Amino acid sequence: MADLITAKALREERAPLAHQIKAMNDKVQAEKREFNAEETANWEKLNSDYNTLTARIQAAERTEAILSEQLAPTNELQRSDADGRKVAESFDAQKAPVATAEDHALALQAWARVQSDMDLKPEHEQACKVTGINVRKKTFEMPLYRNYNRAKTEFRNALSGNSGVSGGFTKPEGFIPNLEQALLYFAEMRQVADVMRTADGNPLSWPTADNTSNTGYIVGESESNTTQQQPTFGRTIFSAYEYTSGFIRIPNSLLVDSAFDLAALSGQMQGEQIGRAQATDFTTGSGVNRPTGFVTSCVANSATSSAASATAIAWDDIFGLKHSIDPAYRRMGCQFMMHDSILLIVRKLKDGQGRYLWQSSLSAGMPDTIDGDPIFINQAMDSTVASGKYTIAYGAFSKYKIRDAGGAVLRRVDERYIENNQTGFIAFLRSDGNLLDAGRKPIKLLSH
């Protein structure tokens, strides 16, 4: 297997592109003109190459995080008996085998082989023992990462950088990591939102309280203390809407012969399909039989900051948006979010001293920034600057809560595609999302 290109090497390859992007803009600004046709084409190519390298950097860093997570020892081993009941066995993490990415891939292959009435090899049996997978069950239930929030706060958001688009996968990542990666890549909100895992899909009530308008006061000696200051309470109910990937078909020859390709291919494709649907709903979902997107919530609560122009974005607009957010939220950590086409416009902006707002990241695992705050691309947001559009979001995105009910479930269908000697797989994941706003508007939109 060829050595993988490191994230550090990719950042070094990307750095000259950032300098060229700034140099091009400096040139036309100094000459007080717009890009000509040739310069526009070059500008767009430079930005596209920069974004591609950024995605590869994030993929490389994400892969390292996944391998670290997969190799981390646990204090409890989950196994399943013949009826599918899980039984916990305590063990010494120093002595017991640790489930690796290869174990997860072999366990998935073992499940597929048993469903096809094929015998298991010793390595399959060992992988099932280590991972706790019951291959006799018709469904393959997949808990996602044990430490999901830690992984996503490291700003990893791309698919595995060493997975070939036509099945030429060179490194085993396993179904669960690939599913998780694809969800992160397509449902951008999962990178910055707070993700909650619950065992079931019962309605989940999340209380809110706003006490920001109340203050303490001085009471004089022997004075009556009768003032009452009551916080404003509310609650948000989280449901569990069932998302599905739809069927994917895998040739039976690949199904029984390859552990690694099956795991990577299934996880990547089904994660992409679910992730695409959730990307839109977590952004602009109506809240009617689906999640409430943060844009929907902001518009409903008038959480907006007006731009000076209906057809342009100015330096002052972005800073006005930023400072429309309460400083208490800014101290928590805020992010910018926008469509990639809007980011292309923002990259040209400078302050009054000629300094760029956009700053390319040179640090491992960190995104580009505006005024020190991270930028995240969300392709479900408005892509053009025009009247009635909401081009940039800024705020404490940790106040957007994503609820996943249980883990993803993979189901196998044997007969539907038998004439093509293929087996169908379909994945399900129950999720909901909403912005927790007790009245202080933690996220706002730049409106035109």
Entry summary:
The chain has a domain of 292 residues: phage-related protein like fold (Alpha-Beta Complex), CATH 3.90.1690.
What does this structure look like?
With 448 residues, the protein is α+β, with helices and mostly antiparallel strands. It has a domain of 292 residues: phage-related protein like fold. It is built from 13 helices and 17 strands.
Strand order of the largest sheet: 9-17-14-10-13-12-11
Number of strands: 17
- Proportion of residues in helical segments: 25-40%
The N- and C-terminal alpha carbons lie at a distance of: 51 Å
CATH domain topology of the domain at 138-212 and 232-448:
phage-related protein like fold
Number of helices: 13
Structural class: alpha+beta
Beta-strand proportion: 15-25%
CATH class of the domain at 138-212 and 232-448: Alpha Beta
- The helix-strand sequence is HHEEHHEHHHEEEEEHHHEHHEHEEEEEEE
Low-confidence segments = 70-94, 145-174
Can you name the CATH architecture of the domain at 138-212 and 232-448? Answer: Alpha-Beta Complex
Key attributes of the depicted protein:
448 residues, alpha+beta, phage-related protein like fold, 7-stranded mixed beta sheet, 6-stranded mixed beta sheet, 13 helices, 17 strands, globular
Strand-helix topology:
Layout: H1 7-30, H2 37-71, E1 76-80, E2 86-90, H3 101-115, H4 122-131, E3 139-142, H5 148-152, H6 175-186, H7 189-192, E4 194-198, E5 204-210, E6 232-238, E7 241-244, E8 248-251, H8 252-257, H9 259-284, H10 294-300, E9 304-306, H11 315-322, H12 327-332, E10 335-338, H13 340-346, E11 358-359, E12 369-370, E13 373-377, E14 390-395, E15 400-413, E16 422-435, E17 443-447
Parallel strand pairs: 4-15, 9-17, 10-13
Antiparallel strand pairs: 1-2, 3-15, 5-6, 7-16, 8-16, 10-14, 11-12, 12-13, 14-17, 15-16
Helix pairs in contact: 1-2, 3-4, 3-9, 6-9
